Amino acid sequence: MSCFIQVADEENEEPIEIPVEEDGTLLLSTLAAQFPGACGLKYRSETRSLRGVRLLDGKLRPPENGWGNAVYLCVFPKETPEGEGRSAASRGSENKRKNDDQLEASLAKTKRLELKQKCSDLIVLGLPWKTTEQELREYFESFGEVLMAQVKKDPKSGQSKGFGFIRFGTFESQMRVLSQRHMIDGRWCDVKIPNSRSGEGQQNQVPCKVFVGRCSDDITQEDLRDYFSQFGEVTDVFIPKPFRAFSFVTFLDPDIAQSLCGEDHIIKNTSVHVSNAAPKTDHAARHGFGRGHPRDAGRPGMGGYGPAQHGYGSQGMNGGWGGQHQSGRGTEMPNLAALGTSLGIGGQGGHQHPNSQGPNPAQMGVGPMNLGLNPLAVAAALNQAGWGLLSNLPGQSPDTPMAYSQAGPAPASQAQGPPSMAASGQPGGGPAGGSFLNWMNQGAGDGGGGGGGSAMPQPPGSQPPAGAAAGWPQRSDQKQSAGAGPGYGRNPDYV
DNA sequence: GTTGAGCGTT
Predict the structure, then answer these.
(1) Three-class SS state of A246
(2) Whole-angstrom Cα distance, residue A235 to residue A222?
(3) What CATH number has the domain bearing residue A27?
(4) Which residues constitute the domain of residue A163?
(5) Region A25-32: what's the mean pLDDT?
(6) Staple partner for A152: which of A37, A113, A161, A418, CB 3.0–4.6 Å?
(7) CB contact burial A222-257 (16+ within 10 A = b; e otherwise)
(8) Protein A26 CA to nucleic acid B2 C1', in Å?
(9) CA A164 / C1′ B8 distance in Å
């Protein structure tokens, strides 16, 4: 079996042999040790097209037929700002900027990166009692330089309290760690931005998650992961079940996610449309969304969405994206809330989407308080308008008229519509939050419906999230919040 | 010597 694979910076550069693990995977950290800043690999397939290498949990997986003798090429995050990682010069010509627009975008991005790149302490929850600070540090060192690792202990007994804190030297490491769960000494642990720090920088981030519309039902998670990995590391893929013609792809690098927004891509002979995934909280609705993509300048802001406050305040934000659902150990998602659904900096909203030919949802009064709306139709309509699911559409005001029928044909056959929020009469009251997007995002369904009272549809069978192939925590020593009520059974991805 | 959602004696 081969113990090394050949990796080069770029084509025609001299490859370096890099050791693979015994299980045949290549650790991203190993790759990064030789190619600082690399976030993935690609290679020329038989068809001479570039193909991305699957990356899961920091491990690059060999192609179907093994690594072979191919020379693999590093993938770097697009548009690495100056002073970080490898210089643009060393990356060849691919990142050359040619016009003022791009320059401007670059400056804006650099500025934003300065904001976002700050590391903060991270809390590690669920540590085994026996785990020491040394062990904690050693575990996380595989993700990058660990500046601090501490296990909180009872002062008297010295007994661990089962949680600790870590701090990384690079934001990259922090992001990577936040994007997954961690098996430490035999227990699944969660790493999160601690409450004491939440809101100090995380909100200045940009979504890592994109909405992929017009999916066909034969496009699998694997397909999406394979396809989108060519652009950068994919940390999660989520396809709602039952089939709803859209999916979410989360990238490690928000810039990569953003760079894809507005584009059409062909997967399995299907043209899918990538657009912004909507944040999960009404923050987005109030503050606008996104900073505009260079190629997609001026996405509409949330301004047109009516009184976004409507109905959400009472739900109680608990600080952080998707915070409503951040409880629930066991089925809890990795802390993607800190990753994939954060908010663009003070979005310069307000423009009409240049490509928006259909009715502007803002003007349409896109309200989830639907009239038995077919989600597929809504997704299609919004997406058709170049919007994807841009707004959180929180407890929409009843005074915004519905106009979906203008937005596009509504395949009426899939009768599984979103819950009638109008009927639920909230704002803010419904057990499930009362947002159309909540419903859209639920995917495998509000399995917590067992808890009763949810107005949400409850398709059978939840599934573990992508990227959790190793098995979601079902350890016998880990309480599973049995009968935890609404919410715990839902798919832990995207709330 | 038990425990298992949480949030840090600086």
Answers:
(1) strand
(2) 12
(3) 2.40.240
(4) 115-192
(5) 87
(6) A161
(7) ebbbbbbbbbbbbbbbbbbbebbbbbbbbbbbbbbb
(8) 41
(9) 8
